[in-house]
Design goal:
membrane; 328 residues; alpha/beta; 8-stranded mixed beta sheet; ATP-binding; 4-stranded antiparallel beta sheet; 12 strands; Rossmann fold; AAA+_ATPase; 2 domains; 12 helices
Length: 328
């Protein structure tokens, strides 16, 4: 399969009054055609900033990409000018943001907001764009599409708004869809419907999806390949079945252990002790060492590199360096 997106050693930093925050620090990943890659991790792990970097939405007074490459269709996205990037964004790469209410324009009708990318990128006339908007609303499973097209965002529920965001994102048949926590704050029934819709869209158009989530249930249901991030770095990656059956990194093991299992009673749910480290206080070490029950001396003084472990997984952990683990 061809790589639709290939990120190599991406570094996205933010300058603050207290110092430099290395929000994304050397991340490499790829998304192949027709594949769903899930990026999972706690808040503050760098998942969303990775996505925003791909979309070219971090450049500003504080944030910028300081190193690495983001290859899409043979071009390095950070090298492109604003106009070139604008032609790709929304047309070839689309994004569903976490909060649909804050992403949609509150003073424009739903139909107008779906029409905008159709007129901008596909050069459709207003009449044709409006007809296509009605089709898209029906396609995402909302009844009375004509009525919805004439509604304002505040008149719709959260689940309907998220569907509208999906309609806008897929309106130009993008090659890559980035979904940032697309089911956050939705009840489980609506969440299942949204995920099922994304899966159908992917299968119908052979579109690639980069799905960002902290929910391992979503990962199990949607992913072909999984990237586990912690404190701006990839700590483990692999095909979804391998990662769930044989997690390597203590952080991944902790995430899986903390997920409730249907039909299994627990006196107390497991949680990973401690919290993600302050990004301004990171030292040369494994960033997870303060929370890790298997921490060794070397974990506190040297950073492990992401290396192949077995045939289909990669892990950044000193436990898998045989000489070090043997003497620990």
């Amino acid at each position: 399969m061809n790589n639709v997106l290939e990120i190599n050693d991406l570094r996205t930093h933010f300058q603050t009054e207290e110092g430099v925050v290395k929000a994304v620090d050397g991340v490499s990943l790829r998304v192949r055609q027709g594949e769903t890659v899930c990026i999972v991790g706690e808040s503050g792990s760098g998942k969303s900033i990775t996505a925003m970097s791909v979309m070219g939405l971090v450049e500003g007074p504080a944030g910028r990409i300081v190193g690495g490459s983001i290859e899409f269709a043979g071009r390095n996205l950070p090298d492109l000018g604003k106009n070139e990037l604008r032609t790709i964004r929304g047309r070839d790469i689309a994004m569903i943001f976490q909060e649909p209410m804050s992403s949609l324009n509150p003073v424009l009708k739903i139909g107008q907001q779906i029409m905008e990318p159709l007129m901008e990128h596909l050069k459709l006339g207003r009449k044709e764009a409006y007809s296509r908007a009605i089709e898209l609303i029906g396609q995402i499973g909302i009844a009375r599409p004509e009525q919805i097209a004439e509604s304002y965002p505040h008149e719709l529920s959260g689940g309907m708004l998220q569907r509208i965001m999906i309609a806008i994102a897929i309106s130009c048949d993008p090659k890559l869809l980035i979904a940032d926590e697309p089911t956050t704050a939705l009840d489980v029934t609506i969440q299942a419907q949204i995920l099922d819709m994304l899966r159908q869209i992917k299968e119908r158009s052979n579109m690639s999806i980069m799905l960002i989530t902290h929910d391992l249930g979503v990962v199990a249901e949607m992913a072909d390949y999984v990237i586990v991030m912690y404190a701006g770095k990839v700590v483990e990656e692999g095909e979804v079945v391998d990662l769930f059956q044989s997690p390597k990194h203590p952080y991944t093991q902790g995430l899986l252990r903390s997920k409730p299992i249907l039909g299994q009673r627990e006196e107390e749910l497991y949680f990973i002790p401690g919290q993600v480290p302050n990004p301004l206080e990171l030292t040369e070490s494994c960033y997870f060492h303060e929370r890790c029950a298997q921490c060794m001396d070397i974990c506190q003084t040297r950073e492990p590199l992401l290396k192949q472990e077995g045939e289909r997984q990669k892990v950044a952990c000193w436990l898998y360096e045989e000489e070090i683990a043997f003497h620990a």
